[in-house]
Structures are given as structure tokens and as C-alpha cells.
Amino acid sequence: MKHTKLIIPLLILFLAISCKNYYNEMLDWIDTIEIGLNIEDVKNMQPDYLEIDWEDPQNFENEKWYLITKIKGNNDVLGMSNFLVFIDDKYQGREVRK
Q1: Phi and psi (nearest 5°) for 41?
Q2: Per DSSP, what are the bridge partners of residue 50?
Q3: How much is the pTM?
Q4: Is the pLDDT of residue 45 over 80?
């Protein structure tokens, strides 16, 4: 009985640690994208742990916002949306919206 009380919390801790969340890696990757880089180069740099909706951007005048639809292992409880922002097909940065 004593061992069970110790094993269960350790098992839960192990499972929580082993589920890799790539949110911080996404931020690091975004920080490495050079401002002014064209959209094709950014697409080619996209890491495997991210899914980006390149087919359906949100358009605002000469801006296109591409939604990061999935970050592997991320369970964002706040429900924040991350976008890659391009102006005239040149990378400008990231926007975060609720």
C-alpha cells in the first residue's frame, strides 16, 4: 500500500514530463526568422512540430496573417492564437490574439 502511494505520483510526474510541449521551441524558431524574409523561405524553414495554415490567411489590406494551427504537445488553456504576419509577402513578425 505504501509503495502504491509513492508509485502513482511518480508515474503521473513521469508522464507529465515526457509529454514534450514545443511552445518554447516555436518562440525560439520565430525569433530566428529574419524580418523581410519571403514567404517561401519561411515555409521551407517550418519545423515538423508546427502546423501552419498557409492556404487560408487572414487578410488586412496588404497584410496576411497565417495561423499556427497546431504546436505539438501544446495544450494552451488560454486558447491563444499565434499568427505569422507578412506584409507584401515579406515576414514582419508574430501576433498573438485571444
Answers
A1: -65, -40
A2: 71
A3: 0.79
A4: yes
